[in-house]
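Q: what does this look like with magnesium ion bound?
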Amino acid sequence: MIRLAIQSKGRLNEDSTALLREIGIDIDDSRRKFLSQAPNFPLELLYMRDDDIPGVVSSGTAALGIVGLNEVEEHGLPVQIVKKLGFGACRISLAVPKTVDYTGPKWFAGKRIATSYPRILKKWLDEQGIEARIEVITGSVEIAPAADIADAIFDIVSSGGTLVSNGLVEVEKVFWSEAVLISSGDLTPDQQEILDEMLFRIDSAMVSRRKKYILMNLPQASVEEATRILPAMRSPTVMPLAAEGWCSMHSVVDEDDLWDKIKQLKAIGAEGILVLNIDKLIP
Ligand code: ATP
Ligand code: MG
């Protein structure tokens, strides 16, 4: 059995539970308690506020956790980052009122900066050799300049919409974050085996997210050229069609390359191209 701490509600909760479901671990959200056990996998879920996750993992209360890298960095506790999970992307930035004539990092010298991330901010200020006053606020940091609690803010930005609606401009991007799987680094052999199985499944799920299955009808004469365009995992599957001189080719492509590949395939005579989502891909 292994215990995994995830956010009980908030921005990471849904993606965390969706990832677990994607790797075949059932979660009963309707009966969500503080602790719940997956019926089909040796995993116990501990639901908590994201601020508490680095702490419960570093103390070993939960062997694993899913949390933003920003929280891990801010708490500065000894946990291992096992895997970046590709969701919950955001950055922590310095922003100033749009009326300010911002000249560069030195502008912050002697200023008051409101933030919920004092440790990450202090590290950046030290690196820049700047002394400023850090005002720790746990919520609604973006209203601090208008309320004259601070001259600037250091806060999470994803689209930037909140800044704009509060008359602020992002001037320094300091820290990039995404959700990560963390571990106490102190697992029993049994727990390590469970973690390895989870990682194997997570890798398969993450790889398949960026891949598409593609199949098409192709003139027999174009097979060699098409194999060059679609290298596939080993090599593409080619099957004969009833129509003389034609075959059906199946392969897997990166979503990023999809339209470019389709253009090349059409140019060599491919027809009836079908593109399908892949549920799981085991390399
Ligand atoms: P909790 O009640 O669990 O303490 P919270 O209010 O501290 O929740 P959320 O707003 O739910 O936290 O955000 C959780 C995490 O989501 C952040 O720490 C960050 O890693 C990530 N995140 C991604 N985009 C954003 C965003 N636009 N604003 C805030 N957090 C974001
Ligand atoms: Mg929090």
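The longest strand covers residues 168-177. The chain has three domains: 2-87+178-207, 90-177, 211-277.
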